[in-house]
Amino acid sequence: MHVHFIGVAGTGMGSLAGLFKAAGHDVSGSDVAFYPPMGPALERWGVRLMQGYDPAHLEPRPDLVVVGNVCRPTNPEARAAIDAGIPYRSMPHALAEHLLPGTAPLVVAGTHGKTTTSTLCAHVLMATGREPGFLVGGIPLGFEASHRLPKKRLPQAGLPGAVGGAVPAARRPPFVIEGDEYDTAFFEKTPKFWHYQPEVAIVTSIEHDHVDIYPELDQYLATFAGFVARVPPGGLVVACAAEPRVVEIVGAHAQAPVTWYGLEGDDFHGMPPEWVAAPATRDERGQSFDLFAGGSACGRVVVPLSGDYNARNALAAIAAAAQGYGVPVRDAAAALARFGGVKRRQELVGEARGVRVYDDFAHHPTAVAATLRALRERHREGRLVAVYEPRSATACRRVHQQAYESAFEAASRVVFAPVGRPELPEQERLDLPALVAALGARGARAELAGSIDAIVDGLAPWLEPGDTVALLSNGAFGGIHEKLLARLRAAAARDEARPAAAAEPA
Questions:
Q1: Total-model pTM
Q2: Which of the listed CATH numbers 3.40.50.1980, 3.40.640.10, 3.90.190.20, 3.30.70.2330 matches domain 347-494?
Q3: pLDDT digits over 348-388, tens only?
Q4: CATH number of 100-338
Q5: Would you list the DSSP string of 176-243?
């Protein structure tokens, strides 16, 4: 079958195109640009790429067109496909109809932690021999790609060590999906994760986000209520008891059994958790915690990730693998020590002149605060600098103006790039000067820079060995990562040259 993707260079669309190619289909795709990492990845997977949107890309006529949610009703290529009567689907429907049959989907939902938790689940299931399929929104550093077809086999259900026994999902190969609550397509305004047929679901957190399509909190909450209600009575919901809105929504709408998880010391909001992690050690290599399942001690777990939120993410992955797919608890826990991480999630992209430079996708204030606290715990020496680009539809608006005032508490210095959507009305747009002033009143050093180059010019001479820089954006951030590292490397080269020059005879 010839499958053509319109808007193929998006993270989810590109990975789905790779899945269709791996399944043996002829796959082509169009987009306005093919930037790394997705552009080169698509070429490597054998997807034929076409620049721009043009009805001519539909010749020869494909058997199926997949329309990405980046497309608007005026997109000439999408419009031509629909008007010509070519079968078309949104990304979620294409996945559900063509690749999910015969599998047991594990869908990870939540405002925060979806990508990391999805990748953790895929890693645990792979390491314990379950041969899962997966489709995640980030790029796992321990896998060759962000997608994989499952191996069609039927492992025995209810393997020893599964707390509470495994649900029937254990009889079919798992398929791990990062469940995005964003809308499906211009021709179907429903949340993506409603269509993934979850048999096991994880709900990590619920905070108001995507205000461009869910301007009211109740609208956003309704998407999660609908998601939870779609898990069948014979399935399983793995839910974070430390999150009050998760407790509220899951408690009111779940039709399936619910298993709760959280850290020792969390407020569990009246829901006694079956899965508990008691934090033990934390250092530059990550963290460890003592695992308790159903009230029984299951040993110490080592995870090469920092922060309480990542301990919860790891706990959710263990719970879903064990209780949902029959993986022995100790096997699932042991697998975490070999986790390779996820690109753009606390990713150390380089170190120069003794300065560590991290890249992270964090943009919601809760995610910003958690990421900075985790990096502060990981690197207790030196200063922590947060460089933040408000770029997403929510981050560019004032909906979280006050929350940002406390989000940067762990940082020694905060630098803001310009708002990524300057066309927003001033009264609606995030007020960065006011935020800088508010942080200053709290005693923080904060400033607003006019450009990426200005940020690099201001930071590079100030940074010292032992410092850590966190570059926070849900976009490419203008290539600031390499620009800053290049400047630091040049400074290091000059430092090395000075003693040699001083030693030369006059």
A1: 0.81
A2: 3.90.190.20
A3: 889 999 999 999 888 888 889 988 988 998 888 899 999 99
A4: 3.40.1190.10
A5: EEE---SEEETTEEEEGGGGS--SEEEE-------TTT--SHHHHHHHHHHHHHTS-TTSEEEEETT-
